[in-house]
Amino acid sequence: MIYDLIIVGAGPAGMTSAIYSARQKLKTLIISKDFGGQMAQKAVEIENYPAFERVTGFDLISKMEQQVKDVDIVREKVIEIKKEGNLFTLKTESEKVFQSKVVIIATGAEPRRLNVLGETNYLGRGVSYCSTCDGPLFKNKEIAIIGGGDAGFETAIFMKNYASKIYILEYGESVKASLDNQQKAEGIEVITSAQLKEIKGDNFVNQIVFDRLGKEETLNVKGVFVQAGYVPTTSFLGQLVELNERKEIVVNFETFETKTKGLFAVGDVNCGKVKQIVVACGQGATAVIHGYKYI
Ligand SMILES: Cc1cc2nc3c(=O)[nH]c(=O)nc-3n(C[C@H](O)[C@H](O)[C@H](O)COP(=O)(O)OP(=O)(O)OC[C@H]3O[C@@H](n4cnc5c(N)ncnc54)[C@H](O)[C@@H]3O)c2cc1C
User: Fold this and answer.
1) Which of 112, 191, 254, 260 to pair with 121, CA 20 to 30 A apart?
2) What is the full DSSP assignment across 161-195?
3) Is there an atom of ligand 1 within 6 Å of 149 CB?
């Protein structure tokens, strides 16, 4: 079967695209590794999504997911996209193949890896990128959060529910989190000018080594939460798109179309400067309207 529209990714951008596409009566498929995307990593409540004064990431995901109706769903990773003539062919990790006239890329961004010694070895054994997923595992334990931006501070605020002691290590001379988040993080020890060098342990993490102003220092912690920013998920797109210096997809900001006709990119994966849920939703809706016109 040939779909009218395939959406890759089911974060807020992808789910909104699916809602709009179904309402346009397009034969639609959404392929995604999971539903919710980065909203699942939201450690404190969301306070800037209209109609909800405060809402947890999980509640917002579940409300959006309930509204995704009359579309086919495949829970998998897309590994390749090609265009031949007017048709796109998408291949998933399990070698399933799907075809459509229009594709919307809504694959967002994933946590930036630090590429320090021990980071990969201890993944799932003390190293985590998601406090809402793994936080409870660190009850009464000492932990370090790497990154002094809002994501790092929000992780720290959430982890106050569990950890016995929390350090935030910031590479720069001062933290970048909002004053509001800094105030909420009272009691947390912030170490600036700290560059993580290695994560050590036996079966599980038990120590981090970092450089501070040219001197090597250590902290004995059982958990390391990496919050060092996000990188757009684009590796499967090959030559179909143009990427900017931040590896984001370049789009036309009126339609969200990429350099390939019929291929759109919305949400955090594109070169838009504002990375927010409400923005991702708006772009998803806009792209579907233009995709419909293209068909
Ligand atoms: C810690 C944190 C706190 C935040 N707080 C706020 C906030 O308070 N308010 C706000 O407005 N925004 C907030 N944001 C930003 C907001 O979450 C993002 O802007 C938004 O989630 C982007 O949506 P998206 O749909 O573009 O991408 P994402 O949410 O990243 O979703 C991408 C989806 O694509 C899937 N995917 C990726 N690659 C593939 C593939 N190859 N095949 C299939 N599926 C794939 C992923 O599994 C995921 O489901 C926060 C972000 C973080 C990380």
Assistant:
1) 191
2) TT-SEEEEE-SSSS--S-HHHHHHTTTPEEE-SEE
3) no
